[in-house]
Structures are given as structure tokens and as C-alpha cells.
Amino acid sequence: MEPANFRFGGGAADTMLTPVMAVAMLIGIGLIFTMPRNKVIVPFLLGCFTIPLQQVVVLGGLHFTVLRILIIAGLIRRATLGGTSREDKFPGGLNGVDRMAILWTISLQTILSIQWMEMQAFIHNLGDFLDIFGGYLVVRFFIPDGETVRRTIKTLAVICIIQGVCMLNEQISHVNVFGYVGGLGPWLTIREGKIRSEGVLGCISAGAFAGALIPLFLWLCTERRSRMLAYAGIAGATAMVFTSNSSTSLLALGATGLAISFWPLRKQMTLIRRGFALMLVGLHLVMHGPVWSLIARIDLTGSSSGYHRYYLVDNCIRHFSDWWLLGCKDYDKWGFMMFDLCNQFVVQAVVGGLLALVAYIAIFSRSFGSIGKARKKVEGDRGREWYLWCLGSALFSIVVAHFGINYPAMMQIGLFTLWAVISVATFEASQATVPSVESPGQEFTQDFTVAQTYLPRKESKEEARHSFFEV
After folding, report:
1. For 379, how many CA atoms within 13 A lie in the half-sphere containing its CB?
2. 297 exposure class (CB count in 10 Å sphere: 0-12, 13-18, 19+)
3. Is residue 328, in this structure, part of any structural domain at all?
4. What pTM did the predictor assign?
5. What is the pLDDT of residue 450?
6. Structurally, how many domains does the chain consist of?
7. Is residue 269 part of a domain?
8. Distance between CA 208 and CA 186 in Å, rounded?
9. Are 28 and 44 in contact (CB under 8 A)?
């Protein structure tokens, strides 16, 4: 049976904010209100991924985590920017990904409120709605162009360096430094004799977060001025994956490697996707169990709970009639430990019903589709193609990680950031003019902002090519 406070009523009864984190929060808020729009994303992301989620301010019984306070500050800053056009609100206007994200967040919270019909649940859902909807709006507002995309990826590299060093220190000193500033605690998480480094995100979340970012750092390596930071980011992210000692983290890293390895076959991806779908159908027909029972066989650390993840998916499919309309609040009664929803797709199903699940999947579908269309648009410019391919690889890694983790609020900010980056990158690619393959020497014309998105400044064309990754 699920503990009652896992859903509603849990959390700190009083404000829990250490002096160090309070100062960090105030500095972050000050920078959000004073920095230029295209630089606000830096203090926002640094605050989100370095201040523990356990730091909370309680006002009148309402819980405001530092993450939530930063989101509110970002929304207020956006409200003071002015501008009424859709381009002022969203770079490139409202696109398919934005529409599905809005539908997903609204349907999720609406169905949750109908499902419970309790004031306590409604207040809790308002906080979640602020985290999700507000968080998406903030990162979408403050990543307006390609230069900001570059700055965002650099910031994520710095975050991985910080977290990687701290998680590596846990393996050596057996101390989580974030526990001393109000995090998960200085104590260690050990499974089967192996230390699972937590950092500020938690072991599984940290590894999955880092594994999906490596493709972005690989693209950053193509820029001469950013290579050292990119290499350090890759090292930090890799340290986060391996010190977490989690199969989900290793799967995210493996998915990254698999996606990158398909770069030479990028023009045959339609055939490859169809072949993969046919393979799954064939396996389902010849296997003794359902094809999703393969999840139970995944154990990359010797201590994985792959069977639980399979059992969770299997129960969700078998209980379709329980959740398709308005979700299901009694999913914990489906079987042993079923309250542990360590699958992001299952979470959408049981919390928001079929509408929320379809909208959530549609976000990924439209993101992949926009990346594919943008890659075809810039075909012939391998630098831009590689940039878009790395974004798609990061998104694929996240999809794989979804089958082993339930994304908390901090991880959702990372996911929203990638969605926003993809929206900006695909929009700018759609505005670019690329030289034809028949005339490789022909000069192309494009907007200066678009040029900055893909090519390093003050570099020759030969230096700008990502020859290090050429196949």
C-alpha cells in the first residue's frame, strides 16, 4: 500500500532554507530581473540544478520550493518585457510542440483535480501546474535565438562539471556535499555494496540527465572557443552516469551512443524506423511473453529492478479500462510496490488519462518530426545537420530513460529546456538558405542570427567544419 504522504499532505511543516541557499536564491532572483533577456537562462538553470529541491519556503501552509520561486520570478520578468506579438511571446510563434505541451499540462492538472475532488489535492495540483506550465513558459521565453541556445548548452556543461565532481567525491569521501546545504542528506545510498552517488538530483535522475546531454556537448566540441568547456562537460556528464550506478543512467548513455552511431545513415531513418517497428511486432508474435517483458531482462549493474519496471508497464496495459478516461488514483492496488511509478509514460497514463498520455507522446513525435524536416531543409551543410542530429540524439536518450524513471520537477526543467532549444533550432533552420550539393562553392545568404547558431564566430569555413566527428 502506498504511504499516504507520498501524494498529498507530505513535505516540510515549516520553512527549510539554509543561509547559503537563501543567499544563492536571492542572487538568482536579482540576476533574473536585471540581466538581458538572452542571458537570463544562465542564472535560472544554475539555480534550478544547484539548489536542492528540499529547500522550501512555507507561507500560510503553501509550499514554495526554491525552484518554484525562481519560476515565479521568471514569469514576472516575462510579464515586464512587453510586446504583444506571438514572436515576442515565443520565438518563431506558437508551434506544434508548444500546442501539445500546453494541452498536456492543462489536461494533466484538470483531470487530476477531477479525479480527487479534494481541496488539499487541488492546492497541491496548483503547485505542480506552476512547476510544469510555468517552467515550460519560462525556458521557452528566455531561449529566443541561436546565440542563447549556445549559451544554454554551455551552462548545462558547467552544471554537469559541478555535479560530476561532487558525485565523484561521494565515491571517494563517502559524503554528499549537497547534504550539508539542505539536500538529500550527507549519508550514502548503497545497493549491493555499490555506492550510488546522489548529487543534487538523486542517483537515477542525475545519471539520466547527464547521459542525455552528452550529444549537445559533442556538438559544442565543434566550436573552437568552446572545446575545453565541452570536453569538461562530457567528462562531468560521464562521471555522473557511472557514479550513479544505475541501469537507467547507463541505458540513457547507451541510447546516446546508438543515436550518434546512426549519423552516417541519417538519410535512411524512415526505413530504419519501419524495420525497428516490424522487429518489435515479430518479437511479440514469437516470444512466450509480451515484447515489453524484455524490460525485465535489463540489468546493467547487477542490482537493477527491471522486473518491477516490466510489471509496471504490464499492469498499466492490462488495466487500460481503469485509467483511459480520467486516470486512476488506486493504481497502487494493482500489485506489490505498484505505487513506485518509475516510468514517465505510465505516470502520464494513471495521472492524466489517455488524453494526457497522447499529448505527451505527441510532444516527442512533433519534436522528432520538426528535427527531421529541419535536417532535410539544411541538407548539404554538414555542420547544421550535425547540430540537429545531436539534438535528436539527446531527445532519443530521454525517451529511453523514460522507461526507468519518473521525472521530478528539476528533471522536467531539463526536459523543457531541450524542447525549447529544439523549437528555436528548427525554426532558425527553416529560415536558412543552404547552397545546393551541385554547387558546393556557392555562397549562401541567411540571417546573421541563424549564422551564429551553427558556425563559430571569427573562424574560417574549414575550421568550422566538425572534422573531428566526420565519418
Report:
1. 9
2. exposed
3. no
4. 0.89
5. 41
6. 1
7. yes
8. 22
9. yes
